[in-house]
Amino acid sequence: MSVLKPFSKLPNLDTASILLVENEEQVQQGLAEALVEDSAQAVNVRLARSLPLPLENEKTRPRIDLVVFILNLTSDKSFKSANESLKYLDPGYFLGKVCFMVTNARYASGNMGRLDAVRKMAASLHCPLLFAEVQSPEGVTNAARRLLTILKVASGLVPNTSSLYLSNLTRCTKPPDIDQPSFD
Amino acid sequence: MAKLVSLSDSDLSASSEESVSSRIHRSLRLAEQEKRKNEAEKPFVLALKYFSEVEVGTPVVGNDEFENHLAQVEKVAFSKGLSPEAVSVMLEFAMSLRMGSSPCARVLKCLIPDSVVPQEAVFRAVVWLSVGKIPISTQVLFIKWVLTVFDMIDAKDKLRAIYGFIFSFITDENLVCDSNAFKLLGKAGRQPYLLHLLSLYKVFCPELVTLSIPSRMRSGFKNHISPWKSALMALQKRGSLQVASSISLNFTLKNKTGSRKRRHRHLELPELSRVTNTGVNTEQTSSRKLVPLVQIQSFEQLLKNMHQIELPAQMGSLLGSRLALQYLDCVQDESALLRLNFWLGYALHEEFLFCTDGGAGQNAEEALQFLNKLLSAQQFLQEGFHSSDAFLYKFLNIWDGSLLRPQILGLLSNIPVIPSSRECQNEKLSCGLIECLNNMLLKWLTWHSVYALEDDLDISLHSHTSINITLSGFKDSVMDLVCFVGRLASVGLQLEGCHSLLLSFVLDFYETVCDTFLKFGLPLVVMPPPGVFYPAMFATDPVSLDRLAYIMNRYKMNLTSAKSQEKVTSHAFHISRQTYQEFNNYLAFMVNCLWNSSMRCPETDIQLSEELLAKSGVPQPWMRFDLIHHPAFMMYAVEFHQKCWPGRKDMDLNSIKQAKPWSWYLEFLFTQGFGGLKDFFQNNISRPGQELDSAQSKKQPLVS
């Protein structure tokens, strides 16, 4: 089965699993290390360039609690690849178990069109849109911490809350015009 | 012709004196040198005379006289520089197009001032710019020249008045429309300085420039200004440049900083410095005497000279000086604010938005200091700058939630009221964020109580803008903010396990919210969501509960006062039935829980069934949250019990509920500093402490 499903497997005890999807494979590794290092709970990090995931690892793969698409804003291919991958996710994932992480946003802010496209995509899928400063180690650690906050909720490790409830607040909304305040 | 004659003259005199003796020869030689010098200047004077008097329509092609005079001017310009009068004459000649447009560019290129540039000349040239049919490339050349010599213009009072005109000239004539801009770009060949100018404009008013401009563009004007700049520097080396060192220092500094370090210079606040250091000229050209800001040392001096302050050459320097900020605050000078905002907006954009090299970490310290200076300036002025607001709207979109967080949150809390609902997507639930939002709300409310007009219809949004917002629009904005923070706080408390520090910041926020009517005069009452109320109610620390009691008490006072006003005046604001109901439910629950030892809460959305409570195995669950058994107060109850009955071995906390000990216990609690609880009970329980049976105490919820 090529479509990834959120509830097709049983979870492992006290373990959260996260899938990082990045076409360029630049940030993935560092972020994965930071995720494992920073968490008190056991975190299972899986890496992929794009979806669908290969069939041969299907058996050994744990239940994925959170799918993170890492988008490099300086590259067009990054966005295209993520966009292509989305259709291999079960709709159940879009109830708070997918988020987009944009890198290099400050280095490509001359190109507002690309950022707009990403924002539109995240807003239409009701997913949170995070930004990360991956040029510095502090930035990577911080990005990992933010992902962990979402991951813990998505994997059911935080009592009394669910990923759907959290995503109600954190999901990206598309303001009418991001460049200018509307009274200007 | 004139030059030819003078040359033959000097040749003649030199040949006739060859046979004279050495002593006489020497004195004569000195005299002759003097004479030569005078005569060398003579053709220059003649040339200037020619250019000031030449007839309109004189042909250029084949005109030797013109050619010789211009060569003479060029020679003087590049060797000694041109005097202010010469600059005036030549600029007037070039811009008036008396001999057509062809010599115009050549004249502009040799306009190297030796001391200052008269403001009058530039002013006239701008007038010609709009009258004449000067080719676009020459117009651009002129603007570049003005930019280069800008610091050498002797006074800028008149020029400042036409800034807007110059800017609108550039935008309207050439750069606004896509088609025109492309035409211009086609002619000028997409030259970097033009793109740079466009990029400046994109920063200033992005809606006017629809072109996409490559962000990798650092050395905009550099190469193209250099002919003048190198000439000016050469003059300065020879010591013939009379302008003070501050300008030349600027040039050398700029040359020193390579392209890699270039961006860093935005982060250093420039020194307060005068426009030019040649004070004499300033006094001559302007009608009144101006006092440069740098000379002002004390507040008294500032007050004395308030009407005749000369702004510094670089507006960024204002941020670093308290007196300058005081001046800005008192005078509300539109053009000064415009210049400052432009500088600030550009610096912020360059440094934090258009990063090209990967040096995010290396200038962190500088960035920190820069933003702290900006913050302290804003705190001093008690309001934000437009440009920093506009920058934030962009920056927040791509912020990672941690980079320079304290500074960004500080700037954020200075944002003025935003009419439409705009949620900053941000899931970093931290105390800092709630504090920032509380500050923001406080500033909005303070601003409202200061600027709102009596008829409460139109409010000027910013003390120095003309943007207005209606009262209902303002209320909607505040409502949006409060509701947003309510949601944020609910989720945050849940995620952080009702962390008491976070709870404290959330209660800070609601201390502001509950007093919007009485303290700030804004007719709006918003109750906290259950996600905030119940965590505070069941908090394990007595301080949170005490603050909740204080907040509920303030809510009651606000609501009663609003209600009494509603009865008296017809156009008082209306509080919805739902708000009263929410308040009554919360109040009833609090009184029942703390005072009556019952968990009954009428008509609330949260209902616990008796069976479920029984399943928990807790004996008498309805008593667990009264003033004695509440986890926050148990410690006090035990202490009181020990003090009250020192001899008793077996502790029975329920014995406190008897009449006398109960009133003593309340007294004891109130002496522990729980002022919020004291007020709450005095206002909500009839005859506190006198009712022996607590079940008989009456609660007085408001009726809507």
From TrEMBL, chain A:
It is found in: Chromosome, Centromere; Nucleus. It comes from the Eukaryota. Its main location: nucleus. One of its GO terms (cellular component) is chromosome, centromeric region. Signal peptide: none annotated. This is Centromere protein M. PANTHER family: CENTROMERE PROTEIN M (PTHR34436). Keywords: Centromere, Chromosome, Nucleus. InterPro entries: Centromere_Cenp-M, P-loop_NTPase.
UniProtKB/TrEMBL annotation, chain B:
InterPro entries: CENP-I (IPR012485). One of its GO terms (cellular component) is inner kinetochore. The keyword Nucleus applies. The keyword Nucleus applies. Its main location: nucleus. Pfam families: CENP-I (PF07778). Keywords: Centromere, Chromosome, Nucleus. Residues 1-20 are annotated as: Disordered. GO terms for biological process: CENP-A containing chromatin assembly; mitotic sister chromatid segregation. It is found in: Chromosome, Centromere; Nucleus. Belongs to the CENP-I/CTF3 family. This is Centromere protein I.
